[in-house]
Amino acid sequence: MGQTYFRKGFGLKREIADSLAVDYHSRLVDRIRSSGNTLAVGDLTIKLAKEFGFCYGVDRAVEYAYETESKFPDKRVFLVGEIIHNPHVNVKLESMGITILRPDPDGQFDYAAVTSDDVVIIPAFGVTLRDFQHLRELGCILVDTTCGSVLNVWKRVEQYARDGFTAMVHGKYFHEETKATASQVEKFPNGRYLIVRDMDEAELVCRFIEDGGDATALEAHFRDKVSKNFVFESDLVRIGIANQTTMLASESLAIAARVAESMRRRYGEAVLGEHFRSFDTICSATQERQDAVLELIDEQLDIMIVIGGYNSSNTNHLAKICAAKRTTYHIADASCIDPDAGTISYKPVGSDEEIMKADWLGGSVQTVGISAGASTPNNKIGEAIERIVQMRGVSLAD
Q1: Which domain holds residue 137?
Q2: Residue 177 designated active-site
Q3: Residue among 51, 63, 177, 383 flagged as catalytic
């Protein structure tokens, strides 16, 4: 039987280069980058963050999907969920003939349509241990695009479980990456995990560590966020910190510090290492993009625009950072900007609903900052810039 598991590409980058350039690149964005990330048009100045858009892991996943379609032209190709959280990219893959397997309301995937003759692409987020094992048992060809930064977190979680530490994962329990990360503890019989969304949830756990008491309220609150048969009284004695790579880096670090403080109070400094572990599992690309918007919003900006899918965790966190200091519009795509109507459709930070606003780019707006999530291609950033400029009555040739 031939090889059925691939992680390192097929050596077809040259063959797919033109397709990737047409589908995702932007000469306009390249031009702005080469001009100090600034574009001046009439009385309007556009400033791009120093780091934005596709990261290495996303680039790799998208390239690998294109290579897969080229490598196996006569086979059915499936993708487990979205390869990244960008609607444009996923729609494009579907137009190429790749079938996206969608999860049910409980987040479970149905592989009934997949046979041993098919090809299945694992997305950049990875898949749960159970899903991976099931796909291997099916005997299909697996193309694994799991991001290297995600794999680094998995190694830490595995080590925690091996050594009897509960993995406390800072992430969204319903997110594909967090599910996949937490599932890594299942490689060990006594592996345990607990997922906290934010500092408020971490604080609930820390108070229990310090004060003990009745765990009934915690059990109810974290019912869907802990491993099977989780016992708060015994499974919080030793904790190792991990995180979804696209979470707010400063919050991940703050949560780790808070848990360490609780363990120190409960058990003492002398034996802290027996009860608490924390390693830096923050994705460098996520950190770089967050640092870049922090630097940009310190400049004189009138408004900030963040471009990326509404279900993209890293994009939402960029918008949250910006909204703390500047009027911020998180748009899913360039189409959210309508130059003719003079409107913008955007998702306010903290809301799940898109709203429309008129007169958002009035004459008082002179400088616009722009960033984009790690799953947003450059051509969509370029299209957004073109539409912004059009609202000033100017057309740019890209």
Answers
A1: 57-147
A2: yes
A3: 177
